[in-house]
């Protein structure tokens, strides 16, 4: 029932651990991450694979949740990677609605405001519930939201589009050192199970 699409190796572990800590580990359907400033096309292919697996079989009465999470990127262009994810979501909109999928998004980094706004607009355009949060919200706060559990108010922040977008700097574009967690690992990979979490990375 619980699917993830997380940016960064460390963040993917944090999200999976939080899902398990909140008692939903047995409902975690996949484990994976995309990182290393992937192209729009690579992110699209990754997202499409997850969404096709997510919408196989008969719909569940209680629906499914999709957690699109991540830390605050150092050089990954959030707007560009989200364009690939949005393309896959739009392409699979009918199947996602049929499976009663709801999505929660949390991300920060270069051009994150444009990426988050595009996600918000997509939800309205395709009739899918997509809740959007930025770096003002704790990285894992969207997990209890997605699971229908209470959330500590201290973990929440209000997403404001008016905040100036973070630019992609020359050093970042050139692959500058450092990144939030494993965002510089240069890979995009997914491991999918069937209703259970997959071990390892």
TrEMBL record:
Domain of life: Eukaryota
InterPro entries, per the entry: Citrate-bd, Succinyl-CoA_synth-like
Region (Disordered): 172-201
ATP-citrate synthase citrate-binding domain mapped to chain residues: 1-148
SUPFAM superfamilies, per database record: Succinyl-CoA synthetase domains
Low complexity bias (residue ranges): 187-201
Identification of the protein by name: ATP-citrate synthase citrate-binding domain-containing protein
Protein species of origin: Bicosoecida sp. CB-2014
């Amino acid at each position: 029932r619980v699917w993830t699409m997380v940016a960064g190796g460390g963040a993917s572990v944090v999200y999976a651990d939080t899902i398990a800590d909140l008692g939903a580990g047995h409902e975690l359907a996949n484990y994976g991450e995309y990182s290393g400033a992937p192209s729009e096309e690579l992110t699209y292919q990754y997202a499409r694979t997850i969404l096709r697996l997510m919408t196989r079989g008969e719909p569940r009465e209680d629906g499914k949740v999709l957690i699109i999470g991540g830390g605050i990127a150092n050089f990954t262009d959030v707007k560009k990677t989200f364009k690939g994810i949005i393309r896959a979501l739009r392409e699979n909109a009918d199947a996602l609605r049929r499976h009663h999928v709801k999505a929660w998004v949390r991300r920060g980094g270069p051009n994150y405001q444009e990426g988050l706004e595009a996600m918000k607009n997509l939800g309205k355009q395709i009739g899918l519930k997509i809740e959007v949060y930025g770096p003002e919200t704790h990285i894992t706060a969207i997990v209890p939201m997605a699971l229908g559990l209470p959330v500590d108010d201290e973990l929440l922040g209000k997403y404001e589009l008016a905040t100036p977008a973070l630019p992609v700097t020359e050093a970042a574009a050139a692959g500058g050192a450092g990144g939030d967690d494993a965002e510089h690992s240069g890979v995009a990979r997914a491991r999918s199970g069937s209703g259970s979490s997959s071990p390892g990375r």
